């Protein structure tokens, strides 16, 4: 029997892991990735839009991102948006295509990024532990109100811990992959 509190905790922890994964994916590793340009917003057609809604973003090799605007008239706006996003990139525009070379990271920057990644991962694990605490508090309240037995309460609390361990290990795995990516030369 799965209790709704367990299902809720599982869902919330899964979302936390996914949010942590997304946040870690935004950290530059020295490898080209279209997600590096996710923060870029382009002024087009009277509004501000994400870059991927006005152009095709691709990575033909590990050190280069190319941007092919769907409307050639937007090429200067896209270039300006990349520069104003303060991502540390210097786009080159040939009139049809924008090339964004990705500079290699030096050892000091790699170490800084690893620290940032560890902080993000720890924040994710703290969020998971907070979800565990909420679930356990709900279960203890149900036991106190005699809605579930003491044995059920202990079983459910053990299940919450298993779920917590599963998602904490998931964050550890994501962090390990990101650290390996950062330390690759």
Task: Let me know the largest β-sheet.
Answer: 4 strands, antiparallel
Residue-averaged pLDDT: 89
- CA radius of gyration: 22 Å
Derived from helix and strand composition plus strand pairing, the structural class reads alpha+beta
Which range does the strand content fall in?
5-15%
Q: Could you give the order of the helices and strands?
A: HEEEEHEEHH
Total beta strands? 6
Catalogue the unreliable spans.
none
Helix coverage percent: 55-70%
Please tell me what the overall shape is.
elongated
Intertermini distance? 49 Å
For the biggest β-sheet, the strand order reads: 3-4-6-5
Number of helical stretches of at least 4 residues: 4
Protein model, in words:
- The chain has 185 residues and is α+β, with helices and mostly antiparallel strands.
- Helices cover 56% and strands 15% of the residues.
- The chain is built from four helices and six strands, in the order αββββαββαα.
- It has helices spanning 4-25, 75-84, 107-144, 150-183, and strands at 41-44, 47-50, 55-61, 64-69, 92-93, 98-101.
- A hairpin with a 2-residue loop joins strand 3 and strand 4.
- Helix 3 (107-144) runs antiparallel to helix 4.
- The longest helix is centred in the last third of the chain and has 38 residues, at 107-144.
């Amino acid at each position: 029997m799965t209790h709704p509190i367990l299902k809720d905790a599982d869902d919330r922890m899964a979302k936390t892991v996914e949010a942590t994964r997304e946040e870690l994916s935004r950290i530059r590793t020295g490898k080209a990735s279209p997600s590096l340009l996710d923060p870029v917003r382009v002024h087009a057609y009277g509004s501000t839009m994400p870059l991927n809604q006005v152009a095709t973003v691709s990575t033909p090799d590990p050190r280069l991102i190319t941007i092919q605007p769907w409307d050639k008239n937007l090429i200067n706006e896209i270039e300006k948006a990349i520069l104003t996003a303060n991502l540390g990139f210097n786009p080159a525009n040939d009139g049809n295509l924008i090339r964004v070379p990705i500079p290699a990271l030096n050892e000091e920057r790699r170490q800084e990024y690893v620290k940032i990644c560890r902080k993000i991962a720890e924040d994710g694990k703290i969020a998971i532990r907070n979800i565990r605490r909420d679930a356990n508090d709900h279960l203890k309240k149900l036991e106190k109100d005699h809605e579930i037995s003491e044995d059920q309460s202990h079983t459910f609390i053990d299940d919450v811990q298993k779920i917590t361990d599963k998602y904490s290990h998931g964050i550890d795995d994501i962090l390990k992959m990101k650290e390996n990516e950062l330390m690759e030369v």
